[in-house]
Amino acid sequence: MIRIEGRDKVTGRATYAAEYPVKRLAYCYPVQAEIAHGRVAGIDTTTALAMPGVLTVLSCMEPPELSPEADPELALFQRREVAYRGQFVAAVVADSYDNARAAAGAVRVAYEPASHDVRLRADHPGLYKPEKVNPDLPTDTEKGQVAAGLAAAEVTVEATYTTPATHNNPMEPHATVALWSGAGDLTLFDASQGVTYARNIVAQALGLRPERVRVVSRHVGGGFGSKGTPRPNAVLAALAARAAGRPVKVALTRHQMYDVTGYRTPTIQRIRLGADAEGRITALEHEVAEQSSTLVEFAEQTASPTRIMYATPSLRTAHRLVRLDVATPSWMRAPGECPGMFALESAMDELAVAAGLDPVELRVRNDPDAEPASGLPFSSRNLVACLREGARRFGWQDRDPAPGARRDGRRLVGTGVASSTYPARRLPSQASASIENGGYVVRIAAADIGTGARTALTRIAATALDVDPDLVRIELGDSDLPHASLAGGSMGTASWGTAVTLACQDLLRDGKHGFADTTEILRTLPNLARHAFGAQFAEVRVDADTGEVRISRMLGVFAAGHIVDATLARSQFIGGMIMGIGMALMEQTVTDLEFGGFTNRDLAQYHVPVNADIERIDAVWLDEEDDELNPMGAKGIGEIGIVGTAAAVANAVYHATGRRIRDLPITPAKLLL
């Protein structure tokens, strides 16, 4: 199918959060804390209030009314304490964006600074065991005797891998337009990955009933997790509109997004692996240290993929968290699986080298019959098939195992492989279907974050109704529509598609109207391990003189259930792989140890891959049938593409140079040291 919203986007008719036409619109610009820890002693707004066009100033000196149950990151101006550099401590509302920004610069904030701690380290005395890790997984798991398994191993690997803080950089910045009705109801035009959740969270923060809040987000220019829950801009717009008595827009700058819209926590990961003489793993231990803010506990599930990847009689995973004077980390594409698999798959490559085995063969030998940590049977698992097919397509059989064996002029050439995985989840959703004007209309509060949800759901509905897709219209992106799970965790299509299929089937039975709620269905699912799997292969060329790394080839082979739309799927797989290449070679947000906050807060200094960085990249998939998933037989595809990429690139760099880089990103300086 052709993208349903494609023409609207390329002609400019698609409306994003900051673009909704609203009369008498005012603008709000935040004032950010210039210390990382301490207290606001006072705020002088005299000059700002006297400037042209200024309507009002909000600040922590006169806290606006919010619910005590508001998420601490959304409880704006409720306290004078500063938890991190960049925190909103005031905001100016004016008749134009320029006037608001100029007046915000005239607000004078006096601080009582305190010493701050913004550095994650493995020996930090504040490390503790969190109650759970995202989304609701056990913090630690253990089976067998790891120490005994390592002692009995013929070959062992012990190494520490680190990943830096990294940021989502969606093309569309975070923005919200807020307007209150005369009856006290609130409408938000927001950049959101889940309008139902956004409505509930904003309503809780403002102390309103959910039905008095409406969130509209018909088009979203990317999110990657950063728009999964409301950010401070949403609540700020609501507070500013209430204070000014007119609609207000908050459009964050790229700099501001780095401070208040979440990021991936840095990680320090220690892995210990043992294997027998045939390369079968006897013990595996994966320990993780990561950070969160003093406001909110967020623990990324970094070691969770280790629990499901490889057969071993002894397995231990553990997460430890430290609360620092930093902004709260949050979701970034494939949270947990992405940094965790970099460490695990790098360690597997090191084990293959130590054992003298081919890296593909090592993974095949350790493919489990059931999920290693839980013992649950897999609904389907085709990792071995992905590895075999990828090796065939990539020409792996011609690979010389010796590091540094291939050279093309002054460039060292190497290849690497890594496995990838991501859970196949579903959350409850609702949908309605009706016959209108000779066609079919399906309504669901889903989010199209640029992935083509309208197109995929149109195809799913047309299949269920057995009609041409041109007869189906999908309405989404509005919290007044039937409840939908958010677009995240690679579960959007699976969750929404289930509701849409059942609603269409109900329509066929009723003849006029159909409705579905999948809550009860999900409660009765059989207890199985549901995951997508893949294998990623990379070829790199490393300049022997400068250490510059170029990706000459990248291939991903995936087993992700039934593929609903091939064009959309390939785009998602390749998009994830490109993001993984950025993680491997260039992406990092540098923490300012002296002043707190981040030093590189724009796309001039935070580097992401562009076309010139990658010569050839491709993604293919296996035909995988899995009747235990959902009516479509689909697994999520939005995140698995990023998961194994960084490790595949790192392993290829080792093969090219003989240098094992365990600290991302792999920069020329690290290769030349």
Question: Could you name the CATH class of the largest domain?
Answer: Alpha Beta
Summing up helix and strand content along with how strands pair, one would put the structural category as: alpha+beta
| Domain module tally | 4
- What is the beta-strand fraction? 15-25%
Instruction: Categorize the overall geometry.
Output: globular
Distance between the termini: 51 Å
- Percent of residues in helical segments? 25-40%
Number of helices: 18
How would you sum up this structure, described in words?
The chain has 673 residues and is α+β, with helices and mostly antiparallel strands. The chain has 4 domains: 186 residues, Aldehyde oxidase/xanthine dehydrogenase, molybdopterin binding domain (Aldehyde Oxidoreductase, domain 4); 158 residues, Aldehyde Oxidoreductase, domain 4, CATH 3.30.365.10; 191 residues, Aldehyde Oxidoreductase, domain 4, CATH 3.30.365.10; 94 residues, 2-Layer Sandwich (Aldehyde Oxidoreductase, domain 4). Helix content is 27%, strand content 24%. The chain has 18 helices and 24 strands. The strands form 5 sheets. It has a 7-stranded mixed beta sheet. It has a 5-stranded mixed beta sheet with strand order 7-15-14-13-8. It is globular, with a radius of gyration of 25 Å. The two termini are 51 Å apart. The mean pLDDT is 97.
Task: Please give a handful of descriptors for the protein shown.
673 residues; alpha+beta; Aldehyde Oxidoreductase, domain 4; 4 domains; seven-stranded mixed sheet; five-stranded mixed sheet; 24% strand
